[in-house]
């Protein structure tokens, strides 16, 4: 009999979740997270409270050393706390190894560090003829800026 009877598929259709577009979204989020994480500038020095500034440029950590000065006037070489004598030895060895024209120093000083400690560090770096000395800071968020 043509045209008569009922078909099983005529009722309401069940919803289906498509997996392929879901996987695409997951991979996009994963790739975005990885790229964002890699773009963050991370300091190679000891953990200090950096002074605030209203404008600053990005840092390029390649072929550089981070010298940290803590609030209790300890000196750090990258992540290691070192003595003053060891600092002098390391800065001279670094200048010889890399060459003063290629060496780059980031000074990562706590905002409460003693000025004389920073002056001592800069003087020792200058004695090695290293010219590229950068002071690390943190940018003041717009909400904290005073007009």
Automatic annotation (TrEMBL):
Membrane topology qualifier: Single-pass membrane protein; Single-pass type II membrane protein
Localization per record: Cell membrane
GO biological processes: protein transport
Key words, A-Z: Cell membrane, Membrane, Protein transport, Transmembrane, Transmembrane helix, Transport
Cellular component terms (Gene Ontology): plasma membrane
Family: Belongs to the ExbD/TolR family.
Name of the protein described by the UniProt record: Biopolymer transporter ExbD
Organism (species): Ereboglobus luteus
Organism placement in taxonomy: Bacteria, Pseudomonadati, Verrucomicrobiota, Opitutia, Opitutales
């Amino acid at each position: 009999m043509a045209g008569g009877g009922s078909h099983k598929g005529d009722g309401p259709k069940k919803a289906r979740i498509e997996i392929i577009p879901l996987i695409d979204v997951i991979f996009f989020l994963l790739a975005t997270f990885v790229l964002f994480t890699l773009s963050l500038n991370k300091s190679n020095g000891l953990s200090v409270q950096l002074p605030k500034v209203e404008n600053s440029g990005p840092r390029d950590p390649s072929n550089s050393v981070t010298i940290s000065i803590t609030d209790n006037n300890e000196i750090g070489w990258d992540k290691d706390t070192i003595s003053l004598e060891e600092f002098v030895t390391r800065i001279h060895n670094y200048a010889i190894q890399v060459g003063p024209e290629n060496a780059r120093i980031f000074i990562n000083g706590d905002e409460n560090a003693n000025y004389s400690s920073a002056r001592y560090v800069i003087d020792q770096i200058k004695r090695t003829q290293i010219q590229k000395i950068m002071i690390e800071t943190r940018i003041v968020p717009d909400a904290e800026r005073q007009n």
